[in-house]
Design brief:
170 residues, alpha+beta, Mago nashi protein, seven-stranded mixed beta sheet, 22% strand
């Protein structure tokens, strides 16, 4: 038996173990990946996110949610201006489905000098409301839904916010 045959026999003999090691390594690597390691929700921190559409009728025109480190809330007021919230807690299973949204929050947004990005809902395309509170300091933005009107670093987060709102409502 030559050297390559012995290697092949070894691989065949230990195939399950090798597959387990490779699979475990991939899982470990993926679980250690985080879209944004710097942003976390501590006990009193929160992320408010939602969308708003002015030329719209029905319940889905204004949807606003508040995500904390361990709960998800929905605003009952559906106020287009993004003020005067009245949050109620949603079921824990809904929270567990969307708790990773904070992982997509772009650090660059915290340094953004503008609070309005693009022209939200100017052409009936809607807008996103984003508020982030850390250690009692609240920052707020209104973001155009048209990705061609906003910085590219926001695109993945915008997609995730819209996906999360859809997921909560369906």
């Amino acid at each position: 038996m030559n050297d390559s045959d012995s290697r092949w026999a070894y691989i065949q003999k230990h195939q399950n173990r090798i597959q387990f090691i490779i699979f475990s390594s991939v899982i470990l690597f993926l679980s250690s990946c985080n879209k944004n390691c710097d942003i976390e929700l501590a006990q009193n921190d929160f992320l408010i996110f939602g969308h708003f559409y002015g030329e719209c009728f029905g319940e889905g025109c204004v949807e606003t949610f508040k995500l904390t480190c361990d709960k998800l809330f929905e605003d009952l007021n559906d106020n287009y201006s993004g003020t005067d919230f009245n949050f109620i807690e949603l079921d824990n299973d809904v929270f567990e489905q969307v708790e990773d949204l904070i992982d997509y929050f772009p650090n660059q947004l915290l340094g953004e000098s503008e609070i309005t990005l693009g022209c939200p809902d100017c052409a009936d395309q809607g807008g996103l409301l984003i508020q982030y509170s850390e250690n009692g300091t609240l920052q707020s933005w209104r973001i155009d839904q048209s990705q061609s009107s906003v910085p590219e670093y926001l695109h993945e987060f915008m997609d995730k916010v819209n996906e999360t709102i859809y997921q909560i409502n369906n």
